[in-house]
Amino acid sequence: SPPPPYSRYPMDFLKPTADCPDAVPSSAETGGTNYLAPGGLSDSQLLLEPGDRSHWCVVAYWEEKTRVGRLYCVQEPSLDIFYDLPQGNGFCLGQLNSDNKSQLVQKVRSKIGCGIQLTREVDGVWVYNRSSYPIFIKSATLDNPDSRTLLVHKVFPGFSIKAFDYEKAYSLQRPNDHEFMQQPWTGFTVQISFVKGWGQCYTRQFISSCPCWLEVIFNSR
Question: Does the record bear Transcription in its keywords (predicted)?
Answer without folding.
Answer: yes
